[in-house]
Amino acid sequence: MGNLLKILLMTTAGLLGVLLLTAVAFNFLSPELGGKPTTEERAQFAKTGHYQDGEFQNLQPTRALTGPSLPGLYWKLLTHPAPPNTQPPGALPLQKLDSLAITRKTPEMVRVTWFGHSASLVEIAGQNILLDPMLSVKMGPSSLVTPKRYNSELVIRPEQLPAIAAVLISHDHYDHLDYQTVRKIKDKVGLFCVPLGIAAHLRRWGVAPAHIREVNWGDTVCLPGLTLVSTPSRHFSGRGLGNQNSTLWTSWVIKSANKSLFYTGDGGYGPHFATIGQQHGPFDLALVECGQYSADWAEIHMQPEQSVQAALDVRARAMLPVHWGAFTEARHPWNESVQRATAAAAPHPELLLTTPRLGQPVVLGTPLPQERWW
Questions:
Q1: 175-226, pLDDT tens digit by residue?
Q2: Which residues pair with 362 in a beta bridge?
Q3: What are the CA-CA distances from residue 270 to residues 6, 62, 233, 276 (Å)?
Q4: CB 262 within 8 A of CB 276
Q5: Closest alpha carbon to 358 in 91, 93, 90, 87
Q6: Could you give the C-alpha distances from 108 to 100, 127, 318, in angstroms and in order?
Q7: Which helix (H) or strand (E) holds 165?
């Protein structure tokens, strides 16, 4: 029995060693994990005032976990089965987007098409602006540990997209910055506008440095007829082992001559929304994170009621809930976020909540979709 125990222990140790070596090798070799900022770039980050000890900082104290520790959270997830309604019963209804329809626009038209989760196409000032284009069915380098998209069919495949004036990235998590999508669209994108540090990922993926613009909070990027402003968010970043918060996270203001839009990116609620509203509002439409929340990470994602309050804080006339409708990353019912947001917005006639189906266009200046299709 003693020899058998020794054999079992040696075998287990060997397997754990192989798994550890595999994880380490994967961390260094997989292109999906992206690149690392140079020493010179990190020296520049240190001058921002919100970069310390190799990590970017939020404007206010923020904990990634507000419940159990990370091992405790893993144990909780392993020992408490997920409720059955965290996934929809079937594929969600969607409206396919014809790439030819994207080319048919006037400079005055502002049209927003939500693809699911946070990926959205903004057509404004006659140009195409793509937000956090995660347009893959599978997320991240391994489908064994990341969720799969509800629908195997997409609103539009990345290769079907026409020329894109700018891609706006909010942060480098896999559900917002997708390696496969970037590889497929990089040659049709005029400019990738990304928070500090993310240029290293794009360079590793073959994007020419001339087509990358890194931004700090408060920086402005000007395109013909458009002004893009990076504004704060309250979140975190990282794609692999040992690079937690090595890149910045941001929200985005998109302004034309007569329309103004806001995209929150990911993040918890905070006073930065009121500041953004004072400095850049009011907004004709705000795309607001509204999903994948939990009491265990309450400071880095908003509850639906907070999402509505954020839209009110930035002085939005209409709110489009995003960060839902594609993946399950939290243990609330898959459609709870939009239900709660709808209820929270009801007492506020100054805020219209628009709830398009996947791929259904939202055209400013026309009646906005409000069907409760979920």
A1: 999 999 999 999 999 999 999 999 999 999 999 999 999 999 999 999 999 9
A2: 112
A3: 55, 10, 8, 11
A4: yes
A5: 93
A6: 18, 11, 18
A7: strand 164-168
Asked if the model's pLDDT at residue 12 lies above 50, the reply is no
SS3 readout for 286-297 = EEEECCCCCHHH
Q: Which pair of structure tokens corresponds to residue 241?
A: 């082992």
Task: State the pLDDT at residue 30.
Answer: 86
Please, is 81 exposed, middle or buried when counting C-beta atoms within 10 Å of its C-beta (0-12, 13-18, 19+)?
Answer: exposed
- The whole-model pTM stands at 0.92
Identify the burial level of 45 via C-beta atoms within 10 angstroms of its C-beta, where 0-12 means exposed, 13-18 middle and 19 or more buried.
buried
Angle (CA) 214 241 211, round 5°: 20
pLDDT bracket for residue 50 (50, 70, 90): very high
Pair of tokens at residue 60: 């206010």
Residues 323/173, Cβ–Cβ less than 8 Å: no
Q: Which domains does the chain have, with CATH numbers?
A: 86-363 (3.60.15.10)
What was the pLDDT predicted at 28?
Answer: 52
Q: How far apart are CA 110 and CA 306, in angstroms?
A: 27
Considering just the CA atoms, what is the radius of gyration of the chain in Å?
21
